Amino acid sequence: MSAVQFTLSQRGKRKVVFEGYSYVFDRATDAKELWRCEERGRCKARLHTVGDSVVRKVGSQCHELSAARAEAAVVVTRVKRRAEETMEMTAQVINQCTISLSQAAQGALPTLGALKQMVRRRRNKLGTPLAAPTSLETLIIPEEFMKYAPHHGEIVSFLLADSGPSPQRILIFDSQRKLAILRESRTWYVDGTFQSTPPLFCLIYVILAEAMEDVHPVLYALLPDKSRSTYDRLFDMVKKIVPEANPRSISCDFEMAAFNAMRTAFPGVRLHGSLLFGTEHEATFMYLGFIHQVQK
Predict the structure, then answer these.
(1) d(CA 190, CA 215)
(2) Are 284 and 204 in contact (CB under 8 A)?
(3) What Rg do the C-alpha atoms of the chain give, in angstroms?
(4) Which of 133, 141, 221, 269 is the most buried if burial means most Cβ atoms within 10 Å?
(5) What is the model's pTM?
């Protein structure tokens, strides 16, 4: 008889597909493996296999064939295996496994988000490192990396904004709890550093706000370059995160692109040119301190 296709259930249990029907593992003998129809509540069909070959079929299905579901199950298994065996980006793993999928089977697949999560969980379980992105367009940030736990039982989002896949991508980090400081403060300090900038990005940009007789780092942004358009987009994103933000004074280094972007974003703000940190090292240490806090 024909060979079967091996798949995995959502819980990682072995299944086979034969003639369009799915069977789940029942038991094994010294000579063969026995499988029962996945619709076990209403179907008594059974398979006996040796290796990937069917040596006996017992009974026949009493329900309609779901070829689309069977095809989708095979694809899900391929996705899981490809996630284990390659270092491809998550989107590439899914695309390669679904490229020739029928339209009916596409409707039977889990959602794209569920497939992505499946790849990440599979790799996390095996300790497989994520594939290094080659561009800001292909950079995918897993959901578990968008949050951290400052205290036991508390989960905080710290990726506050992502401009989306493009060569001019901007990411903004910190916790929602600090946004109240930015909302109320009328005095800001901003500066950037090239040191410790992650690959693919050009600059770490730090926004600090004065409150309660102290100065607090409240936002960290990863920028692709130092152009005027990038700074315009950065401060537009900041205003979307904190619409009530209304600084009266901003101190920053002597960079006209940033100066002009701040004037556009916050009309009437007083700008003060200064060597804010004295050296880039201080801005770098502030950023690394934040990362250390997230990783704890």
Answers:
(1) 11
(2) yes
(3) 27
(4) 221
(5) 0.57
